[in-house]
From TrEMBL:
PROSITE patterns: PSI_RSU, S4. The keyword Nuclease does not apply. Signal peptide: none annotated. Residues 2-65 form the RNA-binding S4 domain. Keywords: Isomerase, RNA-binding. It holds the Pfam family S4. This is Pseudouridine synthase. SMART domains: S4. One of its GO terms (molecular function) is rRNA pseudouridine synthase activity. It comes from Isobaculum melis. Its EC number is 5.4.99.-. SUPFAM superfamilies: Alpha-L RNA-binding motif (SSF55174), Pseudouridine synthase (SSF55120). One of its GO terms (cellular component) is cytosol. The keyword Cell membrane does not apply.
Length: 240
């Protein structure tokens, strides 16, 4: 289910704020009944009218995108920097990213117009694993690996247990390539976890999201998810 004002905004009726004004002033009906409260949740099957005119609701679409470095995980940017939706110029639906990757982080990012699924995937209780590969300063020692694996304090809250694999080390350049798998999605979490053990991240890439990978894609490319992938994602998000 989604909030009514969000559905109106996605349908192109008005901005989210203007949609709230339309609801509050009695211009909107759901299944023939006038709705004036902001908390109204609607399903895809509900019939919505604005001043007696039925609104067109977009068919849900789902994309897997290989986000390049130097791109914002948003639909717009006040500094006029490149955003992820710039790579989808011919997609008529109002898509948006599920979660975010930092400006300088590359890798797998999902985009959709399915607000219900996006909320499920981003909810903390739905433990979908995400695997990152990081180039870090220095080399992890066993006690540091154990800290990361057991959970480490970040901003007065301990992270959930992680999986850590050392891929390679370079003693001459004093850096390492490390694979880290987590199921949380806190802000800058991977960078903060490595910073907490005194190994700043130099490069970061998200390689997997649950069962999804970047196979066959290069930075800036995307593909549409097939129905069984969407179904599996939804099942994974709801089973926790």
């Amino acid at each position: 289910m989604e909030r009514l004002q969000k559905v109106l905004a996605h349908a192109g009726i008005a901005s989210r704020r203007k949609a709230e004004e339309l609801i509050a002033t009695g211009h909107v009906k759901v299944n023939g009944k006038k709705v004036t409260e902001m908390g109204c949740q609607v399903e895809h099957s509900d019939q919505i009218e604005v001043d007696g005119v039925p609104i067109y609701r977009e068919e849900p679409v789902y994309f897997l995108f290989y986000k390049p470095r130097g791109v914002i995980s948003a639909v717009s940017d006040d500094k006029d920097r490149k955003v992820v939706t710039d790579f989808f110029p011919h997609i008529k639906q109002r898509i948006y990213p599920v979660g975010r990757l930092d400006y300088d982080t590359t890798g797998l990012l999902l985009l959709t117009n399915d607000g219900e699924l996006a909320q499920l995937l981003m909810h903390p209780k739905h433990q979908i694993e995400k695997t990152y590969v990081a180039k870090i300063k220095g080399m992890l020692i066993p006690p540091e690996i154990r800290k990361l694996e057991r959970g480490i304090m970040i901003e007065d809250r301990k992270t959930a247990p992680a999986k850590v694999t050392i891929i390679s080390t370079d003693r001459v350049k004093d850096n390492s390539i490390v694979q880290l798998t987590i199921h949380e999605g806190r802000n800058h979490q991977v960078k903060k976890m490595f910073q907490a053990v005194q190994h700043p991240v130099q490069k970061l890439k998200r390689e997997t999201y649950g069962f999804l990978t970047l196979q066959g894609l290069t930075p800036g490319e995307w593909r549409e998810l097939v129905p069984h992938e969407v179904k599996k994602l939804r099942h994974m998000a709801m089973e926790k």
